[in-house]
């Protein structure tokens, strides 16, 4: 869930919040709900404490702690995006990937 929309300044980064994306599973804790990232364009996902190192997965707990960001690559495109799928500890997924759209401000 979440609104799947983020806004970032060109060449900048922005924290991803639970208002942007979130997962809730009554049978699992936030640290066992893992988002897999794919098809990122015009930027990448990283941890706040390592903002230049792209990651391919993060947990709901890390989102809740404010530890995950989207870093724009500085290109002139007005949009960026990435796809996510969430899985629980048993491997059950959220189904088809959902696209998170990123509006890029000059």
What labels would you give this structure?
single chain; 106 residues; mainly beta; 1 helix; 9 strands; 48% strand; globular
Structure in words:
- The chain has 106 residues and is mainly beta.
- The chain has one helix at 60-64, and strands at residues 5-9, 13-15, 34-41, 43-47, 50-54, 57-59, 68-72, 79-87, 98-105.
- The chain is globular, with a radius of gyration of 13 Å.
- The mean pLDDT is 96.
List the topology elements.
Blueprint: E1 5-9, E2 13-15, E3 34-41, E4 43-47, E5 50-54, E6 57-59, H1 60-64, E7 68-72, E8 79-87, E9 98-105
Q: How much helix, percentage-wise, in residues?
A: under 10%
Structural class: mainly beta
Shape, per Cα inertia axes = globular
Q: Which sequence of strands runs across the widest sheet?
A: 1-9-8-3-6
Q: What is the typical, i.e. mean, pLDDT?
A: 96
Please, how many helices? 1
- Compute the CA-based radius of gyration: 13 Å
Termini separation (Å)? 28 Å
């Amino acid at each position: 869930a979440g609104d799947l929309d983020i806004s970032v300044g060109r060449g900048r980064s922005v924290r991803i919040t639970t208002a942007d994306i979130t997962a809730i599973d009554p049978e699992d804790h936030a640290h066992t709900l893992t988002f897999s990232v794919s098809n990122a364009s015009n930027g990448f996902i990283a941890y706040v404490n390592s903002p230049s190192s792209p990651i391919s997965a993060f947990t709901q707990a890390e989102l809740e702690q404010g530890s995950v960001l989207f870093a724009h690559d500085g290109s002139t495109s007005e949009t960026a995006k990435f796809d996510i799928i969430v899985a629980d500890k048993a491997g059950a997924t959220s189904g088809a990937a959902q696209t998170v759209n990123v509006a890029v401000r000059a």
